[in-house]
Specification:
Strands 6-5-4-1-7 form a 5-stranded antiparallel beta sheet. The protein has 3 domains: 7-99, Tetratricopeptide repeat domain (Serine Threonine Protein Phosphatase 5, Tetratricopeptide repeat, Alpha Horseshoe); 113-187; 190-249, Roll (SH3 type barrels). By secondary structure, it is α+β, with helices and mostly antiparallel strands. The longest helix is centred in the C-terminal third of the chain and has 34 residues, at 154-187. It has helices spanning 7-16, 19-33, 37-49, 55-67, 71-84, 89-99, 113-122, 127-150, 154-187, and strands spanning 190-193, 197-201, 210-215, 219-226, 229-233, 239-243, 247-249. It is 57% helix and 14% strand. The chain is extended and about 75 Å long.
């Protein structure tokens, strides 16, 4: 299953002076290496209860649950780790192993060429990074405008003017991409089904029509909530209602 511990997690605990969390982390690591997965999980959860959220802790929780053959829980924690460190190849690898253990094979809706291009461009950076780039572009635009205003040579004025327009255009695009990324982030509310098997219904009550069924470990997107029910959508576009107790949101940090 790959590495158990990230060095970065240990360094984080050491640098921040969280002695209690560091001790819990070492206890969890020792318990995991001995095969005492219940104890390891309990210690990792204590770290989270202390307010220390990191990709490393969630990754290790996913590993411990995987060793216990608790696939839904392992996927849940791998997904949370991936949110905090989306570029980590080992998290993706272990998540893939866990997802291969699930029963539901759901084909996602096909993307158009335009949608793929849009995703490839906007996903180059996070909305925070796009926002920072927008601020930098605006500052550079101001500096170039000042240079344009005070330049004595026409060639410098022309260069400053053209460059400032290009930078301003990039800044506007960055603002748009930041907004789009943030909107998509808020709209995306992933969750994991925890019931061994659950019937998805057309309305938020047990008397409504049965639409389809799902099994533990399947990833869904939360759309709405009513009383003790969640409205969900799966990758192929199907929509239905599931009891709130049978699904856990991934972004509940």
């Amino acid at each position: 299953m790959g590495k158990l511990v990230y060095i970065g997690c240990f360094l984080l605990f050491s640098l921040t002076g969280h002695g209690q969390n560091e001790a819990l982390f070492h206890k969890a690591t020792e318990a995991y290496n001995k095969g005492a997965y219940d104890e390891a999980i309990a210690n990792y959860l204590d770290i989270l209860d202390n307010g220390q959220h990191s990709a490393s802790v969630y990754f290790n929780l996913g590993n411990a649950h995987y060793k216990r053959n608790e696939i839904a829980s392992s996927i849940y924690y791998y997904e949370k780790a991936l949110l905090l460190d989306p570029n980590d190849a080992e998290i993706r690898n272990n998540l893939g192993y866990a997802q291969n253990m699930t029963l539901d094979a759901i084909d996602p809706l096909p993307e158009t060429g335009l949608a793929k291009l849009y995703g490839n461009i906007t996903n180059i950076m996070t909305f925070d990074q796009w926002a920072v780039l927008a601020v930098v572009c605006i500052l550079v635009f101001v500096l170039l405008y000042i240079l344009f205003a005070y330049a004595t040579y026409s060639s410098r004025k022309r260069w400053a003017f053209i460059t400032s327009l290009m930078v301003l255009f990039m800044g506007v695009l960055s603002v748009i991409f930041a907004y789009v990324q943030y909107r998509d982030f808020k709209a995306d509310q992933p969750a994991i089904i925890f019931a061994d098997e659950i019937t998805i219904r057309s309305e938020p009550n047990t008397n409504s029509e049965e639409v389809f069924s799902l099994h533990a470990g399947t990833k869904v997107n939360l759309l709405d909530e009513l009383n003790d029910w969640h409205k969900i959508r799966i990758a192929n576009g199907q929509i239905g209602w599931v009891p709130a107790a049978e699904v856990k949101a991934i972004k509940d940090f």
